[in-house]
Amino acid sequence: WLEDSSIDTLILSNHILSSIRREVDRLGHRNYISHILANEDMESAVKERNKEGKLRAYLKVTSISLENVVIVGDAPEEVDIGRNIGITTIALAGGFYAEHRLKEKQPDFLVHELPEVKPILERLWNI
What we know:
Elements: E1 10-16, H1 17-26, E2 35-39, H2 42-47, H3 51-62, E3 70-73, H4 76-85, E4 88-92, H5 99-104, E5 109-111, H6 117-125
Parallel strand pairs: 1-2, 3-4, 4-5
């Protein structure tokens, strides 16, 4: 559906790029991911936990309008990043963090399963 709707997807992570690529390939999801923004090596992963900086740099280079960007994540950090950048935030409950911690961050939307994101995007972007 994302591809048919011309929606690019990316993974934004503090982990190591090669490990993420390996997992994406193992799961057979390479065709679903447009870009992966992550650390090149272990040293960077330990020192530079800067997902917001990575996303800001990506958005600057691509010149994507912020109204066309949504961050979906299962951590309070993603809600903070979205707020700081000025993009729509969707928190995904059921991950590592307790739901009440996600609610405290007041995301634009709180979902419990990824399929719940589709109707939100359809409304946001009139798809």
